[in-house]
Amino acid sequence: MAKIGTIDLGNFPLLLAPMEDVSDPPFRAVCKDGGADLMYTEFISSEGLIRHAAKSKQKLDIFEYERPIGIQLFGGDIGNMAESARIATEVSPDLIDINYGCPVKAVACRGAGAALLQDIPKMVKMTEEVVKATHLPVTVKTRLGWDEKTKNIVEVAERLQDIGIQALTVHGRTRVQMYKGEANWELIGQIKENPRMHIPIFGNGDINSPEKAVEYKNRYGVDGVMIGRAAIGYPWIFREIKHFVETGKMLAPPQLAERIKTVRAHLDFSIKWKGPKLGVFEMRRHYASYFKSQPDFKPFRARLVEAPTGEEVHEILYEVAAHYDISASEAHLPLYVVG
Q1: Could you report how far apart the first and last alpha carbons of the chain are, in Å?
Q2: β-strand 38-40 against 7-8: which pairing, if any?
């Protein structure tokens, strides 16, 4: 049974990874419906929160149906991180997560995200100050190390636990690797095997099927797994893993009607959340995965990606339904209504 503070996540919980420009409320909504047990906001700049930047403040918005949900923060200044934790606490998430794993230059070059893997004392001090700044559970997401020579995550895990974090998620790559190559879970398993560790340890990296989730669960003993890229356009991966864990059998993939219905709900929420232009534009990254393996779908996919308005996307989806003999009512029921 995995618990973060008083948050009971059940046996082998499935976490949705925080992903910039992906893990917004519309995407989280369909992933929650798909079976995600714990979700996180997109990572939020501590400096942006302190400056009251509109984009950063908007990312603080959370909804009751999303719970339990964590707000993930990143930054390179200890004082700013502590202050941003106080600001985030005011919107009453279930936990605060610190990003020590983001490898992109725009973050790491500012001394934030994975850059802290080059300065473990500062990482520990920053974490300690964030823990002091909030009454909420504080968790951390990080990587194995900065490069092959600094894969010190087993020691780092102990130090972070000692100053008060209540769960740790580790991506099985170094910062230098970015997202290339295969994730190495051996060190994640060593953290879990360490008799000093008593907080939940979640593994992240390359979990893209129910079989792999169960294989890694059994091989490395992790308390749960975090899923990122595999959930983009395929929020059903969570329920499929749960079904495989419980029964040892594969769940049938979603039928086309369910895929269309989910895309409609995702699109409508995206437009409501980000406006008619950005809401349509940012949906384009999802269509290929939503309709992956659908025979003869390439012409429809090209039109979906090019459609400039929500109305045109809906019209194309009606055509898709008709082409594959699906009634409009089957494919049009929205999943969420957001006030």
Answers
A1: 35
A2: unpaired
Beta bridge partners of 71: 96
Annotated catalytic residue 31: no
Does one domain contain both 92 and 240?
A: yes
* Residue-range definition of the domain harbouring residue 277: 256-323
- Residue 277 has phi, psi (to 5 degrees) of -85, -60
* Contacts of 325 by beta carbon, 8 Å cutoff, 6+ apart: none
The dihedral through the CA atoms of 110, 87, 200, 203 has a sign that is: negative
User: For residue 73, what are the CA distances in angstroms to 112, 141, 204, 232, 302?
Assistant: 10, 10, 18, 21, 36
Distance CA 77, CA 105 (A): 17
Of the given ranges (101-110, 160-169, 189-198, 286-295), which has the lowest mean pLDDT? 101-110
Q: Is the peptide bond before 25 cis (omega within 30 degrees of 0)?
A: no
- In this predicted structure, what is the pLDDT of residue 331? 56
Strand partners, 100: 142
Q: How far apart are CA 317 and CA 257, in angstroms?
A: 10
Residue 15 resides in a domain: yes
Does 293 fall in a domain?
A: yes
Report yes or no on 274 lying in a domain. yes
Catalytic option among 29, 44, 50, 102: 102
Q: What is the pTM of this model?
A: 0.91
